[in-house]
Amino acid sequence: MDYKALSDFPRDAVDRLLNVIHLFRDIRATSEWQYDVLLKRSRLVSLNPGEALLHSGDVDQWVYFLVRGELQVHVDDAAASSGERPLAEIRPGEVFGDLSMLLAEPRSATIVGAPVSQEIQVLAVDCTLFGDLEDFSLLQLPTKLVFYRNMVHSLRWKLEVYRSKYPMHELANSHRRLKLYTGPKNCKEELVALADQARDLARILLDWNAEFGSGQLAAEESDMSDFLESILS
Fold first, then answer.
1. What is the pLDDT of residues 74-124, one digit of tens each?
2. 109 φ, ψ (degrees, to nearest 5)
3. 200, 48, 23, 2: which is closest to 125 by C-alpha?
4. What is the SS3 assignment for 63?
5. Parallel, antiparallel, or unpaired: how do β-strands 62-68 and 95-96 relate?
6. If exposure means fewest CB atoms within 10 Å of the residue's CB, which of 1, 2, 80, 207 is most exposed?
7. Is 121 helix (H, G, I), strand (E, B) or coil?
8. Rounded to 5 degrees, what are φ and ψ at 42?
9. What is the pLDDT, as a whole number, of residue 207?
């Protein structure tokens, strides 16, 4: 695995690379200075197929964006090394590692480079600056609002994917029952509400992941495939 600071690359190349990531694009549109602050807290990681980027049980405050290649999500290191079917696959543009950061808990999964992926590059962002909602010394309120809006959007999208695949599951509508913020916009009150909502969504997503990790959802999917095959044959 190879880690490089973004300052090691030409600035125009970095800007092109990060322009496809909503968080960086939105923050840059808000403030070039805030964008620069975040660049200094970020690094580019290159890894080989089958190599682990994150391990279940790790504790840190980094959030990741896949830039190139493909990653696989496994329950733990043993599952990753045994060749078991991954819980999920991560493709370019997707954010991951956010659950651990939002909930301040150890990582619940192991992330490895997909065996068939030739080139894997990941953007790693140190998100300790976003954790303290009272501290605006380096990252200002508009920047933190952008961050948590992006987190909420990403988590809701992931939960909608689960819902569309398993619409009858008891967790299917859990995220839709969460109360949305309807107060004043662009203020600290909204920031706190977004952070709370992101944590609530993260807990629901962890519940989904636990269901999938138990094999229950995979079994349901297999049963449904067998059923469809039987009625179509």
1. 888 888 888 788 888 999 989 999 999 999 999 988 999 999 888 899 999
2. -150, 165
3. 23
4. strand
5. antiparallel
6. 2
7. strand
8. -125, 160
9. 93
